[in-house]
Amino acid sequence: MTASSATETAAWTSAAAILFDLDGVLTPTAAVHEQAWQELFEGYLASQPQATAYSESDYFDHIDGKPRFDGVRDFLASRGIVLPEGPLDDDPGNLTVQGLGNKKNRIFNDIVSSGVEPFDGSVRFLQAALERGLKVAVVSSSRNAPAVLAAAGLDHHFPVVVDGAVAAEEGLPGKPSPATYQYAAQLLGLPSGECVVVEDAVSGVQAGQAGSFHSVIGVDRGAGRQTLLDAGATLVVDDLQELLP
C-alpha cells in the first residue's frame, strides 16, 4: 500500500460511522436531478426572453446539493427573478417557487420510475464499511431519498435517513449548513467527530467542513477535484472504491 492510499484508507477506517449523501455518491441520480432541473428551467425561461438562458454551469453554481425549493429560489435570484412562494403543495403548473419545485419533482420521479442502478464502487465501499462494523446513514437534501434508496435496493442498509422531509419536520436548515449531518450523527448516537461525511456537491462538502466531522470525503462527479478541496474536502476521489485497502 502506498503512502497516499494508506492516508486515504485512514480517512475512514478510524471513524465510527459513514454519513453518505445519496445522489451522486451512492446512486447516479445526481445526473437525473441535473436533467430534471434543466428541463424545468429551460421550459420556464422560454417564457422569460429577457433572462439569460439556462446553462450546464447553473446546476453547480446555484442548485447542486441544496434543498429543492432553495435551488429554485437561488436559480431565480441569479436571473433577478422573484416569484411568489405559493403553498407547499402548490400545483406544478403554477409559476411559484413551490409550484416550480413540485414540477421538478414530478419530472425527476418520471425519469427514475424505471429503477436505479447504484454505483458499483460505492456499493463495495458501503459493504466494506459495514463489514468493519461502522454505522451508516444517508443525509440527502432530496425528499425522494427513501424512494431512490428502495429503487436501488439499498434501503435495508440504512436505519437512519435524514432527507429533505425530515429536515423540514425538524426545522433543520439545508446544506451548506451542517445541521442535517449533525442530526444524523445524533440519531446514530455518535459525536460528529467520529463520523465521516461523503459528498459530491460543493454545498455538501461545505456542510461537512463546517461541522467538525472526522473527515470529509469528496467524490468528484463533475464539480471538480480542486473545487471540492477548496470547499473543505479532506480528500477527493473519482470513485469510492479507491478508498478500499
Summarize the structure in words.
By secondary structure, the protein is an alpha/beta fold. It has two domains: 3-28 and 117-243, HAD superfamily/HAD-like (Rossmann fold); 31-112, DNA polymerase, domain 1 (Orthogonal Bundle), CATH 1.10.150. Helices cover 47% and strands 10% of the residues. It contains eleven helices and six strands. The chain has helices at 3-13, 29-45, 56-63, 68-78, 97-112, 120-131, 145-151, 164-170, 179-188, 202-210, 225-231; strands at 17-20, 135-139, 161-162, 195-199, 215-219, 235-237. A six-stranded parallel sheet has the order 3-2-1-4-5-6, with helices on both faces. Helix 2 crosses helix 5, helix 3 (56-63) packs across helix 4 and helix 4 crosses helix 5 (97-112). It is globular, with a radius of gyration of 18 Å. The termini are close together. The mean pLDDT is 94.
Element layout with pairings:
Layout: H1 3-13, E1 17-20, H2 29-45, H3 56-63, H4 68-78, H5 97-112, H6 120-131, E2 135-139, H7 145-151, E3 161-162, H8 164-170, H9 179-188, E4 195-199, H10 202-210, E5 215-219, H11 225-231, E6 235-237
Parallel strand pairs: 1-2, 1-4, 2-3, 4-5, 5-6
The protein's oligomeric status is single chain
CATH level-1 class of the largest domain? Alpha Beta
Given helix and strand content, the structural type is: alpha/beta
- Cα gyration radius (Å): 18 Å
What is the 3D form? globular
**Count of helices?**
11
Helix proportion: 40-55%
Q: Spatial order of the strands in the main sheet?
A: 3-2-1-4-5-6
CATH fold title of the largest domain: Rossmann fold
| End-to-end distance | 8 Å
Order of helices and strands: HEHHHHHEHEHHEHEHE
> How many individual domains?
2
Largest sheet: 6 strands, parallel
The overall average pLDDT, rounded, is: 94
Number of strands: 6
Low-confidence regions: none
CATH superfamily of the largest domain, by name, is HAD superfamily/HAD-like
**CATH architecture field of the largest domain:** 3-Layer(aba) Sandwich
Portion of residues in beta strands equals 5-15%
